[in-house]
Amino acid sequence: MDDHNPRYVSRLTRNTLALVLAGGRGSRLYELTNWRAKPALYFGGKYRIIDFPLSNCVNSGIRQIGVLTQYKAYSLIRHLMRGWSHFKKEFGEFVEILPASQRFSDDWYQGTADAVYQNLDIIRAQQPDHVLILSGDHIYKMDYGPMLVEHVESGADMTVCCLEVPVAEAANTFGVMQVDTSGRVVGFEEKPAEPREIPGKPGMCLASMGNYVFNTEFLYEQLIHDAAVADSTRDFGHDVIPAMIATCHVHAYPFRDPQTGEKAYWRDVGTLDSFWLANMELVSTTPRLNLYEREWPLWTYQEQLPPAKFVWDKDDRRGEALDSMVAGGVIVSGSHVSGSVIFSNARLHSYSRVHASVILPETEVGRRVQMQNTIVDRGCIIPEGMRIGFDSEEDRENGFRVSTGGVVLITRGMLGLAEGSA
């Protein structure tokens, strides 16, 4: 079958149910996820992380989507209701929220596999040919159609989407696969301390992205079997996939840039440093992640806001933003912004200088603030005259968190302000 035939691909995507795993806490982001699940975290000036896998599904032609929620899901559910509830069931399309609700047991979701297992009745009701299971907390743009085609053409029971990554980066972080020359997975270790290298590519290993395609009936069998294993942790990477390698056909699908054939852009923004860096990458002249590409739009919810505004034009009091992204509703009043991402409704007051920082919505930066290499959480009010990001010891004394890479995190609680939903 011609895998470039659009009608062939569209039949595959139309008969695929996508399940987005969005219940993770993101503990390595510390206070940034105290009041929100990691998939609900803001990114790129106007988006939330969950928008990336959801946009990938819609742009790929997959319009039957379930989002599995658990940890502190209020802001995530609110965002999904506002931005992703317009699909019409009558047209065979939907984005539905599947919260942990003890459908098959007295427990909440115990792991990635258990989260899907507890929704088997919902999957059966849809009768899809394939189930696409996606991590809800990564930043990337991907057409899932070619992966579905390769899954079918390979005759696999299951396909794992993967990336080539340095061994040092994968250690204790990713599931790592070993494959034969046909792409069949012959070994799988979840977060090994010493990942096995790819033959012929020293220093590199094949890491799972946490995205899987299953033949539906095969998925039922594997989840029911895993649920009966007493000592299972109910996790795809730790339990389900390793158990099936020897007797089932598991295929590896390398995620590559369709234009260059090289490893595609993909970021796990699971630490303060990686979250800050991924945002900083966006303000370069030609970022690897192009948010302005009309052929692959990123969908989200954003309230109706006035344009960003820059006021005062004096030598010592000029409102300006250079090499930066500035969202709607922002007022930069007599302050200088460079190399930063400023989210909606922020206010930056006169004589301040903000460099290489991520300012989340509804933040207020007082006069004469000097700030660099900083993440400011939603709704913070930075007092007048503060210097942040120049002296790590001083930042810690002020109650702020300083990452291993020197990025400063400021939240409302650190400033003595009332904390709450984000």
Blueprint (SSEs and pairs):
Elements: H1 6-14, E1 16-21, E2 42-43, E3 47-48, H2 51-60, E4 64-69, H3 74-83, E5 94-99, H4 112-117, H5 120-126, E6 130-135, E7 138-139, H6 145-154, E8 158-166, H7 167-170, E9 175-179, E10 185-190, E11 204-215, H8 216-227, H9 236-244, E12 250-254, E13 267-268, H10 272-281, E14 309-311, E15 313-314, E16 317-318, E17 320-322, E18 325-326, E19 331-333, E20 336-338, E21 341-342, E22 347-348, E23 353-355, E24 358-359, E25 364-365, E26 370-372, E27 374-376, E28 381-382, E29 387-388, H11 392-397, E30 401-402, E31 408-410
Parallel strand pairs: 1-4, 1-6, 4-5, 8-12, 14-19, 17-20, 18-21, 19-22, 20-23, 21-24, 22-25, 23-26, 24-27, 25-28, 26-29, 27-31
Antiparallel strand pairs: 2-3, 6-11, 7-13, 8-11, 9-10, 9-11, 15-16, 30-31
Helix pairs in contact: 1-6
Site (Could play a key role in the communication between the regulatory and the substrate sites): 70, 108
Domain Nucleotidyl transferase: 18-282
Protein name: Glucose-1-phosphate adenylyltransferase
Describe it:
The structure is a single chain. The strands form 7 sheets. Strands 1, 4, 5, 6, 8, 9, 10, 11 and 12 form a 9-stranded mixed beta sheet that branches. A 6-stranded mixed beta sheet has the order 18-21-24-27-31-30. It is built from 11 helices and 31 strands. Helices cover 22% and strands 27% of the residues. α1 crosses α6. It has 2 domains: 6-270, Spore Coat Polysaccharide Biosynthesis Protein SpsA, Chain A (Alpha-Beta Complex); 309-415, Hexapeptide repeat proteins (UDP N-Acetylglucosamine Acyltransferase, domain 1). The model has no long low-confidence stretch (mean pLDDT 94). The radius of gyration is 23 Å and the shape is globular. The termini are far apart. The protein has 422 residues and is an alpha/beta fold. α3 links the parallel β4 (64-69) and β5.
